[in-house]
Amino acid sequence: MQTKDVELSTGVRARISEAGAGGRPFLLIHGFTGAKEDFTDWLDPLADLGWHAVAIDNRGHGESDKPADRSDYSFELLAADALALADEVWGADARFVLLGHSMGGMVAQVMAMQAADRLDGLILMDTGHGRLSFVDRDQAMKVVSIVEDRGIDGLADLMAGREEPLSTPAHERLLAEREGYAEFGDRKLRATATAAYAGMLLAMVDATDRLDALRNLSIPTLVLVGEQDAPLLRQSGNMAEAIPGAELAVLPDAGHSPQFENTDAWWKALTDFLSSLPR
Q1: DSSP character string of 33-77
Q2: Phi and psi torsions of 222, nearest 5°
Q3: Taking the chain, what is the end-to-end CA distance rounded to the nearest angstrom?
Q4: Does the chain have fewer CB atoms within 10 Å around its N or its C terminus?
Q5: Rounded distance, CA 17 to CA 152, Å?
Q6: 49-88 as b/e, with b when 16 or more CB fall inside 10 Å?
Q7: Residue 14 in 3-state DSSP?
Q8: Are strands 247-251 and 221-226 parallel, antiparallel or unpaired?
Q9: How large is the C-alpha radius of gyration of the chain?
């Protein structure tokens, strides 16, 4: 695996990790306050299976550029970055398989609707087709006011030790059993730009529903969701029903991040789907 910077035609510098150059293209997009490290453990194993696997730090996250204005963040702008990255890494109009996790899954849906002809497969992981169901706009605006007043470190300090909105028994077990996992999450949060946190939180609470548009897709699709990820179980089922031919995999003993919480089940569902894709 190697990590490098890529200058995108959208005007931002993206930090990526990749493995398996020359293999079949596979792009992985992390979620809100996440980072490419949400997938880097699996890039080399994916390369061993013949994939050129690339994980990106979205703009405003991780080590990528962090534009300073809230208006610099939207599903459409992150989707444009990801498509520009595909152009840079694999060539203009190259086809690839796409995985989006949580917020990244919302970005992936926008990409699929804008550029379905670029996708050989689509994996929507612990994500939804509409606005967040577990945060209302008034709550979101209060959090935005806090982060814009105190900065991302001030928000992280305030949140330290508090239960996360998508906390599950699987997540709590991982915090107890995996040394450094809490610190891993804290580092990713603190590496998120204040404007990115505010802009993307509002994008998620103000999102228009994409379910009807998803009915028009003709891309092989896997919808993955942890069985404990209660806020997103229904929306995951809705997407699997709406997208023609889509598969639904509900992963046991897993919540919002099944790649960490039940790695074996996640890896099997992922690789079974990848191996089923036509060439």
Answers
A1: T--GGGTGGGHHHHHHTTEEEEEE--TTSTTS---SSGGG--HHH
A2: -115, 125
A3: 24
A4: C
A5: 24
A6: eebbbbbbbbbbbbbbbbbeebebbbbebbbbbbbbbbee
A7: strand
A8: parallel
A9: 17
Q: Does domain 2-276 have CATH number 3.40.50.1820?
A: yes
Q: Which token pair is 200?
A: 């993307």
Per-residue pLDDT of the chain (279 residues; tens, 9 = 90+): 999 999 999 999 999 999 999 999 999 999 999 999 999 999 999 999 999 999 999 999 999 999 999 999 999 999 999 999 999 999 998 999 999 999 999 999 999 999 999 999 999 999 999 998 888 899 899 999 999 999 999 999 988 866 677 789 999 999 999 999 999 999 999 999 999 999 999 999 999 999 999 999 999 999 999 999 999 999 999 999 999 999 999 999 999 999 999 999 999 999 999 999 998
Where do the structural domains in the chain lie, given as residue ranges? 2-276
Relative to beta strand 119-125, strand 24-29 is unpaired
In 3D space, the residue among 61, 59, 14, 21 whose CA is nearest the CA of residue 38 turns out to be: 61
**Number of C-alpha atoms within 13 angstroms, CB side, residue 121?**
22
Record the tokens describing residue 92, joined without a space: 């203009």
Cβ contact 130:211 at 8 Å: yes
Residue linked to tokens 């963040």: 73
Q: Which residue has tokens 């699929």? A: 112
For residues 272 and 54, give the distance between their C-alpha atoms in angstroms, rounded to a whole number.
19
